[in-house]
Amino acid sequence: MKTSFRLFLMMVLQLAIWGAWAPKIFPYMGMLGFAPWQQSLVGSAWGVAALVGIFFSNQFADRNFSAERFLAASHLIGGLALVGTAFSTTFWPFFLCYLVFSLVYVPTLSVTNSIAFANLRDPAGEFGAVRMGGTVGWVLVSWPFVFLLGAQATVEQTRWIFLVAAILSFAFAAYSLTLPHTPPRKEEAGVDKLAWRRAFKLLGAPFVLVLFIVTFIDSVIHNGYFVMADAFLTNRVGIAGNLSMVVLSLGQVAEILTMFFLGRVLARLGWKITMIIGVLGHAARFAVFAFFADSIPVIVAVQLLHGICYAFFFATVYIFVDAVFPKDVRSSAQGLFNLLILGVGNVAASFLFPELISRLTTDGTVDYTSLFLVPTGMALVATLLLAVFFRPPAKGPVAESEADQAAPAAASPAQP
């Protein structure tokens, strides 16, 4: 089997595990009767794991273990933790099992990237197609739930989100041992061990600070979408519980298509305009959620904006860092922004939106119009910050051909 295809399957399994439970975890916790603060604490576990994972995988794991064995062990433990999560109906056992899963899963996001880069002959040219396997996996995993869940899914049915993820995790643990051997990375001579500190100091540059603030705001909005969307589709719009994940997966289909055009868009419009369009995509989507909830076709169609929201902002941020930041701190800067997107923004969204939902719920009915105007307003503030204060040192990528190569390759391990 061709190496690139084996790595593609690796990415399919990696992101399918995440995609199996992410859209429905917050509605499921509501079904279990977890209070908003308990849901927030569960959501923050992912952010804590992101912080621990970035340093653990970069500073310890990839220097002491072969990458494929690290994947196998992590996904074996993760699968067991997911089974425990599935059958835990009280808060603390649920939280502890989910925390264990998060701590072992999050580091594998960067490890799979490392395996791919280490074993591709032309990483710049091939990684984009390999990484796209993750988006394909996220889309494909939504389909089994058409049969596993009912239109009004019960707790017993919905726990399958974790059981499916566990099955995939066990399968990935076994598959990991068949991946190309990727030995521990040796300490490189001349590596700047203070690169993280220097990356933080770059925030002193106004355009970097503005981008950092906007990335935080947009990551809160992006992660908040996954907190709110499934319950909105099933409880307000009226989409059957066994179809909501398929509807949500349309956004990932759109993402695949959008990524193919991102390089050309960047070359034509430049950094600022492309990012503004990405953030405005969030504002438009939530505004539609707020005012057109009675139209199922409109709500389904607006999911396609996810491709613009993700590619035009988040993927563009990674391309921008790679193109503009000093080479010796580029990797640390990527990690810094990824921590913001995967960790800090996730934690903030996990605390903000469950609390808002609780405050805006009367007699069991959520005021979704008021709820969705909050992220709409946040997106408009972020757009204003970009438009007025973001002044990058270059208009856009150097050449269209370079941008086309960079667009898919710079896709982050954040949520597709």
UniProtKB/TrEMBL annotation:
<feature type="transmembrane region" description="Helical">
    <location>
        <begin position="237"/>
        <end position="262"/>
    </location>
</feature>
<feature type="transmembrane region" description="Helical">
    <location>
        <begin position="372"/>
        <end position="390"/>
    </location>
</feature>
<keyword id="KW-1133">Transmembrane helix</keyword>
<dbReference type="Pfam" id="PF03825">
    <property type="entry name" value="Nuc_H_symport"/>
</dbReference>
<dbReference type="GO" id="GO:0005886">
    <property type="term" value="C:plasma membrane"/>
</dbReference>
<feature type="domain" description="Major facilitator superfamily (MFS) profile">
    <location>
        <begin position="207"/>
        <end position="416"/>
    </location>
</feature>
<dbReference type="InterPro" id="IPR036259">
    <property type="entry name" value="MFS_trans_sf"/>
</dbReference>
<feature type="transmembrane region" description="Helical">
    <location>
        <begin position="98"/>
        <end position="120"/>
    </location>
</feature>
<dbReference type="GO" id="GO:0015213">
    <property type="term" value="F:uridine transmembrane transporter activity"/>
</dbReference>
<keyword id="KW-0812">Transmembrane</keyword>
<keyword id="KW-0813">Transport</keyword>
<feature type="transmembrane region" description="Helical">
    <location>
        <begin position="333"/>
        <end position="352"/>
    </location>
</feature>
<feature type="transmembrane region" description="Helical">
    <location>
        <begin position="298"/>
        <end position="321"/>
    </location>
</feature>
<dbReference type="InterPro" id="IPR004740">
    <property type="entry name" value="Nuc_H_symport"/>
</dbReference>
<feature type="transmembrane region" description="Helical">
    <location>
        <begin position="70"/>
        <end position="92"/>
    </location>
</feature>
<feature type="transmembrane region" description="Helical">
    <location>
        <begin position="132"/>
        <end position="154"/>
    </location>
</feature>
<dbReference type="InterPro" id="IPR020846">
    <property type="entry name" value="MFS_dom"/>
</dbReference>
<dbReference type="GO" id="GO:0015212">
    <property type="term" value="F:cytidine transmembrane transporter activity"/>
</dbReference>
<feature type="transmembrane region" description="Helical">
    <location>
        <begin position="38"/>
        <end position="58"/>
    </location>
</feature>
<feature type="transmembrane region" description="Helical">
    <location>
        <begin position="199"/>
        <end position="217"/>
    </location>
</feature>
<feature type="transmembrane region" description="Helical">
    <location>
        <begin position="7"/>
        <end position="26"/>
    </location>
</feature>
<keyword id="KW-0472">Membrane</keyword>
<keyword id="KW-1003">Cell membrane</keyword>
<feature type="transmembrane region" description="Helical">
    <location>
        <begin position="269"/>
        <end position="292"/>
    </location>
</feature>
<feature type="transmembrane region" description="Helical">
    <location>
        <begin position="160"/>
        <end position="178"/>
    </location>
</feature>
<protein>
    <submittedName>
        <fullName>Nucleoside:H symporter</fullName>
    </submittedName>
</protein>
